[in-house]
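Human: We require from you a standard protein entry with sequence in single-letter code and fold as tokens, and nothing else.

Assistant:
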Amino acid sequence: MYWSLNAPWPNACWETLDYYGRPKMGFYYAKRACAPVLVSPLVRDGKLEVWLVNDTLSIVSGVLEVLVINVVSGEKKVARKLEVTAKENKSVLVLEEPLEKLVEDPVRNVLFFRFSWDVGESTNFLLPSKHRDMVFPATSLSLKILEAKDEGTDKIVLAEVASEGYGHIVFLDVAEDYVNIADDNFFELLPGETKRVKLRVRGAAGKPLTIIARAANSESVKQSINV
């Protein structure tokens, strides 16, 4: 049972949709965790376990990449790359090995996981240390508006965001007082990589907008849409 989805009145609480219908950070984490195909890492007794969860009714086969990211230097290294399979409606342990074999510096290294199959991709990340102990140097983001169009009373915006270094908890929003619903938000962005995000801004058709991108370790960047 999911508790709790939406707020019954304006408040600061554990709901994942606020009273006005804005998705909070937890909404996007829950959305990713409930995806029908999920790569799911954990550390147990000093060992890294990577599980492939397949909630579909078809066999899923693809390639799993395990990357070690140095968040200070920006270096990316493919530590493991293997073909994996999960039968329908099953979760399978596809990788198990001591964490120390992969991670040299647990406060400056982040593990990033990418499982790609013929019709999709699932990504996840793992912090080797407690969040409070991790080192996330400041980075800078860039933001580009690729498309903006009206759809009924809403405005649909396709934006592209990139990070010079490692972007931790990157999110896109609007400066104006509208409800913004993104197809993905509050994500990790690897050094030098870009991500496209589709935004639906409720009630903003025909109105100017200011799109904002920010990370936990960056300042905001803005792009204006005049029509």
Observations:
- The domain at 35-133 is CATH 2.60.40.10 (Immunoglobulin-like).
- The chain has two domains: 35-133, 136-225.
- The chain has a mean pLDDT of 96.
